[in-house]
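Hi everyone, sorry if this is the wrong subforum. Our group has a chain we'd like a structural model of before ordering constructs, and none of us has done structure prediction before. Sequence below.
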Amino acid sequence: MSTFVTLPLPAAEPESHPSGGILASLFRMNVDQYERLVETGVLDGQPVELIDGLLVRKMGKKPPHVIAAEALRDELLPLIPQGWRLTIEAPVRIPEFDEPEPDLAIVRGSREQYEEHHPGPADLGLLIEVSETTLDRDRGEKKLAYARGGVTAYWIVNLVDRQVEIYTGPTPAGYRDQTIVRSDEHVDLLLDGHVIGRIAVSAILPRNRAADG
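Answer:
Right subforum, don't worry. Here is the predicted structure as tokens:
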């Protein structure tokens, strides 16, 4: 589950959280306020990301998570065409209240384009989260944030159920379409609506055992 962190906040009027209840009394910051905190150094390297306006502690990674993320990197890099690049655990800016750091992202353009700002939804071809202990969060708050922001494609590499979950068709209420790709199947990699390659799901899952959740 997400762990909320109390840290100094910039001067601003608090905004009620849409969930109501106790969350309504928490300070909800936007991405501009969050980035100012990062620039001032007040976070001091804390492992947090901004989800739905709240600072959420990033969980540690078990070995299966690390292995799956490395395998994904190795499978994706040869497939990515010119004009795109792969980022790893780098921030993406999803206005107005989210700045997560997905495990992997395929981003349009060159490194130089992002010297002054993080990529936003229009720059993102695909976001990928590797999920073991964070499965509820990745299927919940993060999936909704990506859909609200208009991210066209989102994968969850689900180590618990040993499958890849593909979400497309973003709307303000969530993704319209979900596809489950099992461990003995292949997943198509699409960018701008075109299939640019295929990846065997078995090639990106830990082979020696199922993840222990």
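For your construct planning: Residues 63-76 form the longest helix (14 residues). The chain has two domains: 1-58, 63-203.
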